[in-house]
Amino acid sequence: MLSRSHEAVASSSNLLLSKLTPLDYQRLLPHLRAVSLPAGHTLYEAGASIQNVYFPAQCVVSLRLTASAGTDVEVAAIGREGLVGIDACFGGMPPTHRAEVIIGGKAWQAPASLVREDFSRGGALGKLLLRFNQSLHTQTCQAALCCRLHSVEQRLSNLLLSLRNRVGTDEVSLTQEEVAHMLGVRRSGVTVAAGILRAEGLIEYRRGSMTVVDAARLGSRACECYHVVGKPIGTAVKDLTVIPSPHYGRASRPRYARLPIALSG
Amino acid sequence: MLSRSHEAVASSSNLLLSKLTPLDYQRLLPHLRAVSLPAGHTLYEAGASIQNVYFPAQCVVSLRLTASAGTDVEVAAIGREGLVGIDACFGGMPPTHRAEVIIGGKAWQAPASLVREDFSRGGALGKLLLRFNQSLHTQTCQAALCCRLHSVEQRLSNLLLSLRNRVGTDEVSLTQEEVAHMLGVRRSGVTVAAGILRAEGLIEYRRGSMTVVDAARLGSRACECYHVVGKPIGTAVKDLTVIPSPHYGRASRPRYARLPIALSG
DNA sequence: AAGCCTTTGTGCGAAAGCGTCCATTGACAA
DNA sequence: TTGTCAATGGACGCTTTCGCACAAAGGCTT
């Protein structure tokens, strides 16, 4: 028995879900499963077919490519504004990227096959997915430019602000090592850049966590890429009802052996 | 009166067109217009709505972002294997990138509205477009990684081979300056890299043109990105009937005031 | 309280690429 | 033929980042 509160929470915690027509939403709802995604968990591997899609509630998922040398580069990130695994909705080949949870938290899981069928039906849901797909592509384009032209410091500012906008809190649970993986730079490069930003009072940090202190000034240190993709996402997400006391913060620490935990269904 | 030869040429000069079902193809054919696209011509601007889409026959089109500092970065390239302006088919916002012809040549032009309608009808054409869209996204992902991690020399090798595969000739009409724009690096950086590759007998070049001499060895100098996206495209395109004596080579020189020239219709 | 392991701080030299400048050289046009 | 201009060849010091190595904490476990 899925209660009405379940329903209310699902649609108000993810922007895509909240934008569905009542009909589409009702069709999807019985198949949504509340899960808690631990940081570090891989939702799908590069080259593997996608079994489940995820509508993040408070978590953030990073789409990454791994170079043959082993270095990672983030090509996009998805939070409350989107859907992880959209490639599965369109059929086609498995994606070449990997989806990894970077900020742990709740999400709504649905079978990929279901969303694929809903998409092929066309209509409002299809339009919504295509629209999100385009915004994802825009992110990736900007990532290419950003990787090529902008400094570690700019990109770090960008990253922190974007994460903040997506999770809705000033503090994010990340080590400098993880940040380095996202940016595709050395860990010590992050240490230096973060040190500068801290010295100027723009951010604060301790082991395994970084906090945005002065978002406005940090925004002026970020590259244009933030203003093109990160900020719009932040404003889009603002009108979402905030879910009180998520699992956030607790789920992020021991990132090795934790698997997604079903909260209902 | 559109002759049968017109029909044969269209479907055999572009991979997407050749993959259409007879029905879809017949519906599209009366609206296809043969145009000659001069190098340097912009097919659509960033932020502008797309009026026409293009099925390249012998030309190659570069999708680019311009940073606020003025530097360009290529996020994808499209040749005979694809369609320029696919964003228009899905509705949504105008793209944030620009589409610019880098290798002049023939293409088939169609009204964006028409292809959009055909897409929303669903069916085989829709699947085809979604599939190509995904391959475009794969390219962009790889571009992000490539920009971040690989050397000018590797990326130059990659670029030359990819272009060669798309146009079907070993020689491509490009100045080092134009190559530099594509890679997002200095012009003199290209000079140095090209000099090394020439010294080793992998490529040859003169003013305004570069030639692949030893594709196999050049491939081993290119980064993995070539093998992930450029080479597959090359093999996919191979089964296309080669069109004899295209406008290629002539259309590439005076790249300022030339507008697309209708060859029929 | 002690020990341990992860995370952060820091300091090298090396390498790649940048920005800028100017010399040389093709190729086209007058 | 000659003039002109775009395209290529190189050089300079400078900045950013890399790759590596090691020291100094912070925080959890026992």
Pick out its properties:
homodimer, 265 residues, alpha+beta, four-stranded antiparallel β-sheet, 10 helices, 20% strand, globular, disordered N terminus, DNA-binding
| Strand count of chain A | 11
Q: How do the strands of the widest beta sheet of chain A line up side by side? A: 3-7-1-11
- The number of helical runs of chain A is 10
Radius of gyration of chain A: 18 Å
Major sheet description of chain A = 4 strands, antiparallel
Strand residue content of chain A: 15-25%
Name the overall outline of chain A. globular
Q: Spans of chain A with pLDDT under 50 lasting ≥5 residues? A: 1-5, 243-261
Quaternary state of the chains? homodimer
Helicity of chain A, as a percent range: 40-55%
What is the helix/strand order of chain A?
A: HHHEEEEEEEHHHEHHEEHHE
Structural class of chain A: alpha+beta
Describe the structure.
The structure is a homodimer of 265-residue chains. Chain A is α+β, with helices and mostly antiparallel strands and 265 residues long. Chain A has helices at 4-13, 15-19, 22-28, 112-120, 123-149, 152-167, 176-183, 187-199, 215-221, 224-238, and strands at 33-37, 42-44, 52-56, 60-66, 72-78, 98-103, 105-111, 171-172, 203-206, 209-212, 261-262. In chain A, strands 3-7-1-11 form a 4-stranded antiparallel beta sheet. Chain A has a 4-stranded antiparallel beta sheet with strand order 2-6-4-5. In chain A, strands 8-10-9 form a 3-stranded antiparallel beta sheet. In chain A, helix 7 packs across helix 8 (187-199). The longest helix of chain A is centred in the middle third of the chain and has 27 residues, at 123-149. Mean pLDDT of chain A is 88; it is low at 1-5 and 243-261. Chain A binds a DNA duplex (30 and 30 nucleotides) through helix 8.
